[in-house]
Structures are given as structure tokens and as C-alpha cells.
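WARN retry 2 of 3 for item q-0093 after timeout on previous attempt; input resubmitted unchanged.
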Amino acid sequence: MGMKIPVKERILTTADELFTQRGYGNVGINEIIARSGAAKASFYHYFPSKDSLCLAWLNRWHEKTEAECEALLNSPGGGEKKILRFFEDLKPFLEGGGFRGCPFTNTAGFLGENNDPRIRDIILKHKDYQRQFLVDLARDFTTPARADKLGSALFLLYSGATTESQNQRSTWPVDRALPAVRKLIKADKPVPAGVG
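OK item q-0093 returned
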């Protein structure tokens, strides 16, 4: 007999499925409670509000992203290859998720003045982390000042390709972004001494 999944984990897993499929603003607490099999009192014990559940859900996604980025950062190879791998990995992520895109971008579209401001904070933290990750990879082969500009440009390409892949339900935006990524990297690589 398998281990029973703790209530908090069941709630978070259910929220992840529903928020990812339909968006944070299109899912109600009662549906999450019913689908997770949790008692209403248990739900409110762990998550006093829907916004608190959203925070826990986005924090979990952020931790997963950090772990994946750290693994790539610490993997063999130079920054150039790692940047290309980061973009190439977008295709299986988008296809595997049914082209639902980035949970942070999707959630930002549902936020209003009455939502917990910490939700916006975690979204900004996540986006800043992704941009800085690309800057850190670029520092492997260019100067810090140029790495900041290159990493920012790569981040915008990443964001645009992800969003348009979601809109188009296709990976062609990623395919089109990759040559631009290669050109940006090539333009920032130093020319060896004696060449030119």
C-alpha cells in the first residue's frame, strides 16, 4: 500500500494542476477543496486565503526553477553552450505543459489592486532571477557590463518566445529565437588577439 499524500501537498498539487490549466483567476477555492479531497477546515488551516495558496504555489515553482538553473550553471561546458541549452530546453517545457506558458506571467495578468502584494513581489523576484541567471552565464565569455546588456536581451528573447509559443500553441517562436540568440552571443564574444 502506498504512502498517503499529506493534505497540504494534495492541495498544492491540485492548485498547480488547476492554476496551470485555467489560470489563477479562473479557479475557485471550493473547486480546489473538492478536487483535492481536503476538508474546508484543513484548507484554511494551511492557506488562510486563495492568495496565500497562490504564494505557496509560485514559491514552489520558483524553487524548482532555481534548482534547474543551478544544475545548468554547474554543468560542464562554457556559458555559450549553457545559454543555448537553456533556450533549447524551452521546447520540451512548452510541449510538455500543453503550451500553457509561464505560471508567473499568466498569474500577473489576473492580479488586481486587492490581491496580496507579495504575489507581485514573487513574480518580480522570479523574473529578476531568470534575467540575472542569463547575465551570469554571459559573464563566462564577456565583460560584466556587456554581460548585463546581453543577459537582458536574452531574457527578453526568452520571455517573448515563451509568450508567443503559448499564444501560437507552437514551438516556432523558440525556433526563430535561437538564431538570434546565437548572433547575440557571437557579437559579444571577444575577438582573439591577432585576428582581424
